[in-house]
Amino acid sequence: MERKFPRNLQLVLSGIIVILAGLFYGLHPLYVMPLTFKFEVEALALKNIFRAIMGIYLGLGIYWLLGAFRQELWKSATLCNVLFMGGIASGRLISLLWDGFGLPFFVAMVLELIFMVWGFYNLKAFKSYVGK
Q1: pTM over cut 0.85
Q2: CB-hemisphere CA count at 13 Å for 129?
Q3: Per-residue pLDDT of the chain (132 residues; tens, 9 = 90+)
Q4: CA within 13 Å, CB half, 10
Q5: Which of 20, 71, 92, 115 is the most buried (most CB within 10 A)?
Q6: Which residues have C-beta within 8 Å of that of residue 75, sequence separation ≥ 6?
Q7: Measured CA distances, 69 to 2, 14, 47, 66, 101 (Å)
C-alpha cells in the first residue's frame, strides 16, 4: 500500500524547524528577544536559560534527523518527537487558557499538534518497519 507521506518526512521537517528555533532563541538572545518578543534579556540567568533551551532543541533536532536516516533509531526518535510536540503544545494550551490568546503562539501550538498527530500516525502506519 502506498503512503501519502514518506515515513521520515515528519522527523526531517520537525528536526530542521526545532534546530532553527533553537538557534533563533539561543545564539543572540540579547538582540533577538527584544525585536521578536519585546522584552530585554539582561540577567545572566535568563541568558543561560535561553542557551540551555538552544542546547535542548539542538540535541533533539539532531536526534530526530538521525532517526530519519538510521532505521534502528526511527521508532524511538518518532516517539521522542511525539512526546516533545505534545508537551510543548500542552504548555501553550495552558498558557492560552491562563494568560490569554496570542496569535503567533496559537499558530505554533496548532503546528505542534499536527506534528504530534503525524508522529502517532507514522508509529501506527509503519509499525511493520520498526524493530528490524
Answers
A1: yes
A2: 17
A3: 445 568 899 999 999 999 999 999 899 888 888 888 878 888 899 899 999 999 999 999 999 999 999 999 999 999 999 999 999 999 999 999 999 998 989 999 999 999 999 999 999 988 866 554
A4: 27
A5: 115
A6: 123, 130, 131
A7: 20, 14, 33, 5, 38
